[in-house]
């Protein structure tokens, strides 16, 4: 297709992706002037077209500096979806970095102009190499936020469009209204027609489908990425890293069962995806025993130091930030006892086959750590986003997780981790005691004490996993199992209870339709709010059984407005973690979460270990 654009458009094709660079498309200033200008010189005020001429000098309040954004919508091979990259320049044409740009974006209104860099980079924006322009760093909008932008680009609720397009457009506008009420990104205001033109021309080439008509009433964005169904007669492992999946399969092939393979997978993930998981984090396991037909739960989360002075910590944090309600990510007091090592060994002890030793189970991960592995695309992105934690003050051992040049590795780069290999060998030979009483424990205390932690050797030595009955909820003949609090699994069960009385309505709406998703989102919002007080030390709060009663579920479901979203409130930044599952030939199954909490957790690396300590204590409230 040959396309000609009037300046300032530039249609560009590259071997790595198809994109359209355009600019200038937006102007704004400190606090945001609320005025935007498209490439065809139309001005918008809060999304409404401004009639007549606009005097730019008068439009921008005094002291506000204009900025120009240039967009590049690119198919990202790592995420396998289109991702919005952009560059920002000030009025003089100078480049703007993330710190300078963030307070000027409308997105910062809901998040807070003073949001910390980690929150911004994990959830919204990051500085990353553009896949279509190797070696050129650009600002990247998180794929989830990009999806919100695309939804806004291809939907419009104007009445004129409804009248022109008929009932289909009316339905589309209603769907758009619901979706828009859930949209978290005011970046959806950015150059809608600009991106819409790109989507219309190049969307099919990158897996995005819009309608055939440019304008209001278009259908929603569809990501057409697809994976074929996989079947296997003697076992299966599903994880976020090919090398970790291979490690689990190798143990199954050696005669191990689902529990053995789960530990092998977890250990390999700790090596290959250290930004998300590792020995410095916690683990939660649901194990199904095919012979007995029962499910058990293992809670492998650690506790805060026994000597921690909560009042003193709260006073110190609020003195530095009077508005703080929770521990900051970089507080050493957010580091709890790492429970993953005990969880792995307890999984082997309670459910392992006995056909393979701990050394054989951990051997694939040790080989990856010693011989090296290729860093994946998504992992490289997460590594880059969290690398500032590894270089934080007083964290000399953070270099163990960086390249020789002191940087995060690029996709495809070979990384080794001799420190991690040594820890795994100790765990294989000496078991839990080797980790919680041996040299790894000494290294943990070394880095924590240097930062003022209350953690003592007795805290590490006293750690144990808790194995017991899971909580569950059944609907339409299917029972969902979750680990009991202090984990978040209760939220899923409460949401199911809310939706149970409206299953027929959900079926009528159609899977993943706007109305269907609206119902799920509202149920989850209510479930998070209701379950929150119980997601804590189980002994500290009352029972939550009433949240799973039919009466409570029906009453809660009745509060959902099918045509309107509830108030957003002030949700905290969210991020992902590592989940994987294993099934063996006998039908035994392991469902596992192993996590550092936030990316790289606290970032603190115990010397010589090659892993970071989690910061799960960020969830602790500073006020009752």
Strand order of the largest sheet: 1-2-6-7-9-8
- Describe the global form: globular
End-to-end Cα distance, whole Å, is: 62 Å
Mean pLDDT score, rounded?
76
Low-confidence stretches: 1-50, 59-65, 153-225
Share of residues in helices: 25-40%
Structural class: alpha+beta
User: How many structural domains does the protein architecture include?
Assistant: 2
**What is the radius of gyration computed over CA atoms, rounded to a whole number of angstroms?**
26 Å
- Percent of residues in β-strands: 15-25%
DSSP strand count: 21
Tally of contiguous helical segments: 21
Major β-sheet annotation: 6 strands, antiparallel
InterPro entries: Atg3/Atg10 (IPR007135), GGT-like_enzyme (IPR052896), GGT_lsub (IPR043138), GGT_ssub_C (IPR043137), Ntn_hydrolases_N (IPR029055)
Keywords: Autophagy, Ubl conjugation pathway
Pfam families: Autophagy_act_C, G_glu_transpept
Organism: Thecamonas trahens ATCC 50062
């Amino acid at each position: 297709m040959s396309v000609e654009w009037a300046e300032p458009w530039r249609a560009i094709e590259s071997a790595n992706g198809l994109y359209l660079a355009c600019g200038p498309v937006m102007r704004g200033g400190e606090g945001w002037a609320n005025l935007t200008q498209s490439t065809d010189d139309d001005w918008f005020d809060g999304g409404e077209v401004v009639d007549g001429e606009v005097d730019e000098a008068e439009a921008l309040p005094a002291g506000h500096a204009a900025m120009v954004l240039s967009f590049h919508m690119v198919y990202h091979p790592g995420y396998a979806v289109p991702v919005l990259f952009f560059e920002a320049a000030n009025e003089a044409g100078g480049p703007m970095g993330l710190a300078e740009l963030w307070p000027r974006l409308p997105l910062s209104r809901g998040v807070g102009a003073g949001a910390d860099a980690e929150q911004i980079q994990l959830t919204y924006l990051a500085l990353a190499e553009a896949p279509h322009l190797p070696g050129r760093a650009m600002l990247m909008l998180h794929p989830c936020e990009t999806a919100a932008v695309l939804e806004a680009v291809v939907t419009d609720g104007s009445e004129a469009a409804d009248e022109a397009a008929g009932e289909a457009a009316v339905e589309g506008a209603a769907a758009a209204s619901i979706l828009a009420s859930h949209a978290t990104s005011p970046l959806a205001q950015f150059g809608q027609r600009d991106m819409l033109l790109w989507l219309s021309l190049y969307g099919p080439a990158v897996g995005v489908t819009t309608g055939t008509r440019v304008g209001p009433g278009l259908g929603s964005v569809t990501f057409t990425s697809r994976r074929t169904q996989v079947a296997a007669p003697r076992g299966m492992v599903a994880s976020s890293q090919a090398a970790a999946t291979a490690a689990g399969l190798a143990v199954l092939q050696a005669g191990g069962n689902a529990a053995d393979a789960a530990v092998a997978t977890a250990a390999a993930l700790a090596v290959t995806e250290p930004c998300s998981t590792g020995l410095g984090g916690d683990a939660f396991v649901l194990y199904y025993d095919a012979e007995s037909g029962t499910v058990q739960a293992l809670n492998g989360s650690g506790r805060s130091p026994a000597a921690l002075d909560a009042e003193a910590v709260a006073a110190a944090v609020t003195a530095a930030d009077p508005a703080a309600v929770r521990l900051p990510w970089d507080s050493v007091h957010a580091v709890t006892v790492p429970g993953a090592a005990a969880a792995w060994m307890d999984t082997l002890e309670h459910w392992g086959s006995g056909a393979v030793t701990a050394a054989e189970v951990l051997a694939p991960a040790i080989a990856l750590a010693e011989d090296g592995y290729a860093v994946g695309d998504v992992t490289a992105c997460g590594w880059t986003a969290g690398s500032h934690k590894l270089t934080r003050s007083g964290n000399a051992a953070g270099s163990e997780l960086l390249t020789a040049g002191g940087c995060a590795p690029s996709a495809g780069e070979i990384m080794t981790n001799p420190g991690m290999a040594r820890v795994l060998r100790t765990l294989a030979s000496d078991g839990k005691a080797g980790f919680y009483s041996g040299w790894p424990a000494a290294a943990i205390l070394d880095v924590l004490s240097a930062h003022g932690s209350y953690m003592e050797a007795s805290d590490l030595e006293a750690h144990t996993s808790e194995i017991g009955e899971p909580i569950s909820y059944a609907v339409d003949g299917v029972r969902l199992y979750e680990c009991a609090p202090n984990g978040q699994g209760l939220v899923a069960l409460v949401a199911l209870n809310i939706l149970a009385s409206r299953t027929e309505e959900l079926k009528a709406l159609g899977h993943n339709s706007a109305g269907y998703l609206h119902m799920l989102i509202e149920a989850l919002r209510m479930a998070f709010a209701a379950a929150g007080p119980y997601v804590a030390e189980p002994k500290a709060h009352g029972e939550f059984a009433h949240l799973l009663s039919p009466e409570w579920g029906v009453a809660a479901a009745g509060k959902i407005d099918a045509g309107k979203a509830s108030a957003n409130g002030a949700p905290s930044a969210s991020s992902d973690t590592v989940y994987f599952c294993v099934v063996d030939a006998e039908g035994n199954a392991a469902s596992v979460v192993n996590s550092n909490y936030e990316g790289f957790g606290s970032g603190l690396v115990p010397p010589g270990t090659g892993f970071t300590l989690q910061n799960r204590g960020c969830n602790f409230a500073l006020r009752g």
